[in-house]
Amino acid sequence: MEKQPDDLGKTDVTPTYENLYSDRSRTMKASEIRELLKLTQRPEIISFAGGLPNPDAFPVEPIKEIVQDLLKSDSKRILQYGSTQGVPELREEISKRLKNRWNMDGDPDNVLITVGSQQGLELLGRLFLDPTSTIVMEAPTYLGALNAFAVYEPRVSSIPLDDHGLDVDKLEEYLVNLQKHSVNLKFIYVVPTFHNPAGVCMAESRRHKLMDLSHEYDFLIVEDDPYGELRYTGEPLPTLKSLDKEDRVIYLGTFSKTLVPGFRIAWSFGPKPIINKMEIAKQAMDLCTPPFTQHIAKEYLRRGYIDEHLKTIISIYGNKQRIMLKAMDEYMPKEHIRWTKPEGGMFLWATLSDGMDSTEMFTDAIAENVAYVTGKSFFADDAGQNCMRINFTHPGDEKIVEGVKRLAPVIEKWGDKVRKMKDDTGSEVIQGV
Ligand code: PMP
Ligand code: G9A
């Protein structure tokens, strides 16, 4: 029977609104990680997917203490609107910490507080990118950055990385070529320390070379560093920003991985003219980052709690990484898979044999109640089908072992299948990176 309009004249035909959306909105893409988070909330699934901190390690007691104190002493301020650039005392604490801990020169006016560093990425896209712009990203790269920039439709050139980070020689070849074609490069986006998704660090010599290239070829560098504090072994490396003598680096830091992501407090630290312009763009976006969580974060730093907390999570995450690496070693079919062994961060990056496809395998993995992020999500083009990202910080220790045990037979099954196909056709299946 045909549906009749109800009393208000509405029918139950759902409108699509498609003809109303802007051209810009058509370039928006759902984030695979955000979509997976919905799926992996099912309790039976062991998720190696999201880059989530472990909630058992959240510093609940010190936060409770600070919230109570602040509500008593400063409620009129912490519950009010704040300035767009961010709470001055928090900017002060952050600039001091960047100087003392990482030798990065600057003052509170080099700092803009943002709603997560994800907002820093969005603001940079908004400020710098047009459809005629060219940017360089690593391959693979952080998928949230790909999505943030894609809305502005830049041309993305991907330069591969290896176990020592971005291949700066390949970058140089690319830059020489770019100059021949008079292309103006806006910026290069890099995650040099405990890369997301690859886990690797850019070697120190490469960091120096990248800074030299930025000078020679005149481009900006966006250094995204959510994981730099999470080192389990090895020696610290200098941030690019600390090597920056020409104000070319915009450094993005965040409390999401080192304190709690629910505060949504992060910072952009860069040249004052760029920080000012980002502030203006942010005024139209959200007026200000919530002062409430900014004040809690400020107090957390002032009371000196952060270093103790870092010690705790470094010990927990380092242990989880060892458990993961041991389980991988014990259960994974090594003829079909190899993986990175990072000195910190939150991820392993696994590469499967040529011809295997982590997207095809995904349904089988979910049937076994285990999840990861497919490799192709981290590339601007169609590369990475035979890769996957595996997080080790979020699951409980026993779940890590159990999850690897569930994933290993799925990989074995698909690996054997692809090998048989190659044997039957007598040919190599070429695919992916
Ligand atoms: N950049 C990178 C490389 C990340 O891994 C993340 C979070 N996974 C972000 C930015 C965004 O972090 P947040 O918005 O929580 O600060
Ligand atoms: O989207 C999120 O929840 C943040 C995590 C990012 C990632 O998994 O890389």
Describe this structure in words.
By secondary structure, the chain is an alpha/beta fold. It contains 13 helices and 14 strands. The chain has helices at residues 32-39, 60-73, 75-78, 88-102, 116-128, 143-150, 168-180, 204-217, 272-286, 291-302, 305-331, 358-367, 397-425; strands at residues 46-47, 111-115, 134-139, 155-162, 165-166, 185-190, 220-224, 249-254, 265-269, 337-339, 347-352, 370-371, 373-374, 387-391. The strands form three sheets. It has an eight-stranded mixed sheet, with helices on both faces. Strands 10-11-14-13 form a four-stranded antiparallel sheet. Strand 3, helix 6 (143-150) and strand 4 form a beta-alpha-beta unit. Helix 5 crosses helix 9 (272-286) and helix 7 (168-180) packs parallel to helix 8. The longest helix has 29 residues, at 397-425. The radius of gyration is 23 Å and the shape is globular. The site of 4'-deoxy-4'-aminopyridoxal-5'-phosphate (PMP) has 14 residues, from helix 5.
- Helix/strand-derived category reads alpha/beta
The first-to-last residue Cα distance is 54 Å
Uncertain spans:
429-433
Give the percentage of residues in beta strands: 5-15%
What is the number of beta strands?
14
**Helical proportion, percent range:** 40-55%
Query: Ions, cofactors, ligands: which are bound?
Result: 4'-deoxy-4'-aminopyridoxal-5'-phosphate, (2E)-pent-2-enedioic acid
Order of helices and strands: HEHHHEHEHEEHEHEEEHHHEEHEEEH
Average pLDDT for all residues: 93
Apparent shape: globular
* Tally of alpha and pi helices: 13
Radius of gyration using CA atoms only:
23 Å
Query: What order do the strands of the largest sheet run in, or round the barrel if closed?
Result: 2-9-8-7-6-3-4-5
Largest sheet: 8 strands, mixed
